[in-house]
Design brief:
By secondary structure, this protein is α+β, with helices and mostly antiparallel strands. The protein has two domains: about 50 residues; about 110 residues, Rieske [2Fe-2S] iron-sulphur domain (Rieske Iron-sulfur Protein, 3-layer Sandwich), CATH 2.102.10.10. It is about 20% helix and about 25% strand. The model has no long low-confidence stretch (mean pLDDT about 85). It binds FE2/S2 (inorganic) cluster. FE2/S2 (inorganic) cluster (FES) binds next to loops.
Length: about 180
Amino acid sequence: MNENNHPQPCPPATPEEMSRRSFFAKLSIGLGSLCAAILGVPLVGFVIAPLFRKMPNEWIPVGKPTDFEIGKTVNVPFPDPSPLPWAGITAKGAAWLRRESAEQFIAFSVNCTHMGCPIRWLADAELFMCPCHGGVYYKDGTVAAGPPPKPLVRYDVRINNGQVEIKSAPTPITTTV
Ligand code: FES
């Protein structure tokens, strides 16, 4: 304070003080960047790495042959064998399984080949329906009507050790519009 009771202005910073401030500002930015890299790189790796992981082709048992009636199509649980860490409930997949004869089964993806919506089986009409844009498929998976560009994706099926097994594959989603 001076004699008039006014605060005194700060004296201008000396060149040494300016250079010290500049040094500490750069040091703060450098340390901040280093911390961000230490925390961020593992996080990005955790998110991205699973996308490049090769999906294992596993045979997934879905029940005994006698569990399925000839000529019937049923929904069977078909878990994603290689779920992404953040997949949550979407890792609990399903497939449509049709028993054609005593020894022959067909398994379809539940995803429409148009834009991937889950399809429903209408037993009375013997058709698969897609609720999103009205796609319709026959019981053999071929397109009956609507925008789907190709038949339903089929999975390999076998009977092994008294179990019907479906071979896993990546979720088939097309991007055609
Ligand atoms: S997603 Fe099935 S008809 Fe479009």
